[in-house]
Each structure stands twice: as C-alpha cells, then as structure tokens.
Amino acid sequence: MIQVEGLTKYYGERAAIRDLSFTIEKGEVIGFLGLNGAGKSTTLKVLGCVLLPTSGRVTIDGFDVTRDPHEIRKRIGFLPDTPPLYDEMTVGGYLEFVAELRGVSGSAVASRVAEVMKKTSLTDRKDELIGGLSHGFRQRVGVAQAMVHNPKLLILDEPTGGLDPVQIVEMRELIRQLKGEHTVLVSSHILGEISQICDRYLVIQQGEIIARGTETDLSGMLGNASAVELQVEGDAAKKAIDVLKAVAGVTDVTLTDATLRVVGSGELRPALVKALVAADIGVLKSDKAAARLENIFLKLTENEKTDQQRAAGATEAKS
Amino acid sequence: MKNIALIARRELQSYLRTMSGYIIIAVVLFAVGLAFNGFAVPGTAKKSSEVLADFFTCSSVLTMVCAVFLSMRLIAEERQTGTVALLYSSPIHDYEIVLGKFVASFLFLCVFFLSTAYMPALVAVYGKVSIGHILTGYFGLMLVGATSLAIGTFGSALVRSQVLAAVLSGMMCLALTIAWLLGKVTDRPLTDIVVGLAWWGHFDPFRTGLIHLKHVAYFVLVTFLSLFAATRVLEARRWS
Predict the structure, then answer these.
(1) Which of A108-117, A306-315, B76-85, B146-155 shows the lowest per-residue confidence on average (mean pLDDT)?
(2) Over pLDDT 70: what percentage of chain B?
(3) Chain A contacts of B74, Cβ < 8 Å?
(4) H or E element that contains A201
(5) Which residues of A touch B81 (CB under 8 A)?
(6) What is the tens place of the pLDDT at every residue in A266-305?
(7) Nearest by CB to B82, which of A80, A88, A102?
C-alpha cells in the first residue's frame, strides 16, 4: 500500500526527517511513535500530500506523491494534528462539504455522511455548530471527515491528543473498528494511547526510524524477553522472593514497594503462580511488565541519546 | 468548475454566518455616506451627473478599503486555524482554491455595492441622470473591487496573520494609487509607465459614464496577475 524510500524533508537548513524507508501492507494498522518534534507530523503530511518531499520516493497504492498527488488524495483520508474544522459550520454541513470536496458523487453524499456520523457517534450532534463542540467531539468530527469518502488509507496524526481517558478508550475502539476496511497509520507521542490497536510500530527519533516491529519484536530487541510483575497477599513478599528464585528460568527477582519484579526467559507466569500457590502464598496480581510500550520507548530513546552524547564527546575529544 | 463552486459556496456561507464581514461593510458604508454628504452633494449649484461622478470617486477609494479588509481572512485564516491542510489533502487544484475564495469574496462585496445604491437613487430622484451612467459607474466599481480583492487574496496567501495580510494588501493597493501622484513629478517616458500602472487613471472614465476596453483590460490583467501570484504562493507552501 505504501512504499517509502529514502524520504527526506528539509525546512530551510534543518532536516525534519532524514532518509526514512518503510513499507506498509494493505489492511495493516501502523503505530507511528515519537516524541514531539521527532518528525512524525512531517512524515504524515508528506504521505497526506500536504507537503512535498525534498528527496526520496513515496508511492501510495502505486501512485507517486510528486507525480500523481491527485490520485493519491482521492484514496486517502487525512486528520492533521489540529482537526481542520470550520467553526461556523454545522457538523452535518461540514461533513457534506468535505465529502463533496473529496469527490463523493452527489447522490452518495447523504448516505456516506450518515454512515460516518453513526460510526463516530455524532448523529445526535448533526445540527450543532462545530465551534460549540467540546474537544472530544471536535476530534471525532476530525476522524469523521477523514473517512467520509471511504478512503483506502487513513492517516491520523495524534487522534488521541488532549482527550480524557474515557474518550481515549472510545477513540481506540473506533480505530480498532476501522481495521480490515482501511489501512490505518496512526501517530502518538503517548504510547499507552495506541498500544494494543496497532499491528506494527515505527519508532522515530530526530527524523530517523530507530526501531520497528510488533510490540513483542520491540521488547525482544532490548534483550528483555519477559519480565513479570507480581503482587502477593499480606507480608509474604520476602518469603516469595526465595520461592520465585527457585523456579526454573528465573534469573533475577527484585522487590520495589509491594511489587515483585521477576526477570527470566520464556513465558514464566504459569510456573511462577504455581510455585507461589504451592508455597501457600496468595497471588493478587500477575502482569507482563517489559512488553509495555512506555518502557521500550523510554529505553530506545535513552539509548539514542547516550549514543549521541558519546558521539558528541568523541568529536570534542578529537578537536 | 465544480470544485470552485464548492469552495466559493462554503466561503460565502462563512461570510454570511460570521459578523466580521457585516461589520466591515457597515463601517465602510458609513464612511461612503459621510463622503457622499461632504464632497458629492453640493453646497453650490452642480449638475446631477457631476454629483454622481463625485459619488463614484468617493466610492471607488472606499471600495478598495472594503475589499482589502474583506479579503484579508481568505487564506490567512485557513493557515491560522489549520484548515488549509484539509484543502491541501483533497483532490482539488490550488487555482481552484484561490478562484473559489475570490468569487465568494466578490459576491459578498456585491452586498456592499447594493447597500450603496440608495445614494445614486437619491440623485436620480432629485436630479436628472441616465441609468447608463449609474450602471457604468457600478461596473467600474466592480472592476476596482475585483482588482483589490485579488490583491487582497495574494496578500492573504503570503502571511499567516490576518492583520499583517491587510497591511500588506493595503500597501500594494496604496502603491497602485500613489503611482498616479508619482506621475506628476517624473519625466517621460517614466511618467507614461507610472501613470499607466495607477488604477485611478483607468477608473476615471467609468465615473463619468464611459467604458473603454483598454481600461477594462487593465483591471482584468491586474486581477489575473494577483490571483496567479496567490496560486503560486499556495503551491510554494507545499515545498516549505
């Protein structure tokens, strides 16, 4: 669906993205991760045909972004980091305008608008002015405008930005529903917000991709195959450390506050719980810790920083 | 064509639904009324056609002011609020965006023209003027309005701030006005060029009821060039 080779974009003298290359298959949901200013939005704007690349080749559905941008624009739905909304329009009027703008034929406009409003739970708000909507609803209208012409590819730049926890859950549910029907590219700088909905992740830092793969791939990349967090009943934690250390495959057990952190290889949880129960220790909670995206991301970006500091140190030493 | 109409319709709705356009028209209309009373309506004896010509003189300058303020938001506002990304990511051409916006602002400027119509009507009722004179004068005002709106659209494409856009377009319009004064202190052949550039000389026949194709061509050309420049600015934004 998307092929990107050597994509580079300069803003004046500064490179926002450098030599990016990746491929996205049809029907995939891809998470685009990076801190603010890492180059996520710029990449998505190039894919959304809003900006032209300085160099590199980007093809979407077989069309080149510099040669056939119009063909691509018909096939994509783009939600920028600030939803592009006209405050003086009603929700329904705005979506009809966008549908016509994106080439939906006159007779199909009403049904398409009704369908996306149903999907994004906006039907009750049809006649309200966009200017009077809360942030959560504005974000929903933003997603609705991106999918109103039933595009093959949906590009959502930080769709969860600024939403409250309940709205984030709703937005995740919405994106999950889009899976299969559309290829979806979704970006965020808060990883928890898009974990569990993406098939693969691309981690971008200072304009370059520093890691890619599934959640498991990313955690495997750090050589930290599985760490388990456990909570046990009462004050049996100290006793539990000895029991856990005796389980095959466990390399380390640490206790912070009331949580036991067990590091080892393979899927340890069944064996750990069995051992604890056998030792008559009640288990309150058992959770996979290392696979959490936050940890992976922090570690990846930290590594990147230390590498750069080292490189900077080396240059200074040379001079 | 369909896309131009679509953009124009939305833009016109926006003019009709927000207060700023009405406020600009109201203020300028007040100024036109004052000028009509102060300069055009005579203290001494004056022919009706002269009163009408003076009315068009005052109106032409104030049409320009009105157009500069009406057009300042056209593209600058889209960039300010981020809605320009919607237009950029849709399958429409940049010239369609520019033309659609220009057409909408022109249609809204016609509201201003309509609301000034009571003044020539008064002259017609209390004096003796031909309908042709009135229509020709309004045709001239429309050309001045279209040219100023086009310059305003260009100014609006250049910057993100609406105020700055108005200042820039105002300066461009002022330059085209002052060029006529500049002609008084320069020698030929520079005088011919400078005077030719000024819009004022081209509007003069219209206010007395004459239409010359060369003067129509001037306004059409400046309008075209300004809209063309605005389109190029929009295209260039995709690279930066």
Answers:
(1) A306-315
(2) 100
(3) none
(4) strand A200-205
(5) 82, 84-85, 87
(6) 777 888 888 888 888 888 888 776 455 666 677 777 766 6
(7) A80
* Helical spans, DSSP H, in chain A: 40-47, 69-75, 91-101, 106-119, 135-147, 165-178, 215-221, 237-245, 269-278, 293-318
CB contact under 8 A, A52 and B92: no
Which is higher by pLDDT, A305 or A113? A113
What confidence tier does B101 reach under pLDDT thresholds 50, 70, 90?
A: very high
Q: How far apart are CA A136 and CA A119, in angstroms?
A: 15
Q: Which residue has the tokens 């309509």?
A: B114
Question: Other CB atoms closer than 10 Å to residue A212's CB: what's the count?
Answer: 16
User: Between vectors from CA A31 to CA A25 and to CA A36, what angle results, nearest 5°?
Assistant: 135
pLDDT above 70: residue B128: yes
- Interface residue A239 vs chain B (CB under 8 A): no
Q: Which residues, in sequence order, are bridge partners of residue A262?
A: A228, A253
Assess whether pLDDT exceeds 80 at residue A133.
Answer: yes
Question: Residue A226 above 70 pLDDT?
Answer: no
Indicate the residue type of A265. S
What does the mean pLDDT of chain A come to? 84
Q: What percent of chain A has pLDDT over 70?
A: 89
Provide the pairing of β-strand A76-79 with A63-64.
unpaired
- B129 in A contact zone (CB under 8 Å): no
Give how far Cα B202 sits from Cα of B210, B211, B217, Å: 11, 10, 10
Chain A contact set for B83 (CB, 8 A): 84-86
**Residue B230 pLDDT level (bands cut at 50, 70, 90):** very high
Q: What tokens were used for A106? A: 């006159």
Tokens of B216: 């129509």
Whether B92 and chain A come into contact, CB under 8 Å, resolves to yes
pLDDT tier at A248, thresholds 50, 70, 90: confident
What are the chain A neighbours of B3 within 8 Å (beta carbons)?
101
> What percentage of chain B exceeds 90 in pLDDT?
74
Residue with tokens 């509201």: B111
State both tokens at A263: 């590091």
- Give pLDDT, residue A223: 54
DSSP output for B11-45? HHHHHHHSHHHHHHHHHHHHHHHHHIIIIIS-SS-
Q: A2-219 adopts what CATH topology?
A: Rossmann fold (3.40.50)
- What is residue B60's predicted lDDT score, i.e. its pLDDT? 94
What is the rounded CA–CA span in Å between residue B115 and residue B67? 15
Residues of chain A with CATH 3.40.50.300: 2-219
Residues 73-112 of A with CB under 8 A from B: 73-74, 76, 78, 80-89, 93, 97-98, 100-103
Give Cβ neighbours of residue B62 (< 8 Å, ≥ 6 apart).
Answer: B28, B31, B32, B35
Q: Which residue has the tokens 């093809």?
A: A59
List where CATH 3.30.70.100 sits in chain A. 225-288
Provide the CATH topology of domain A225-288: Alpha-Beta Plaits (3.30.70)
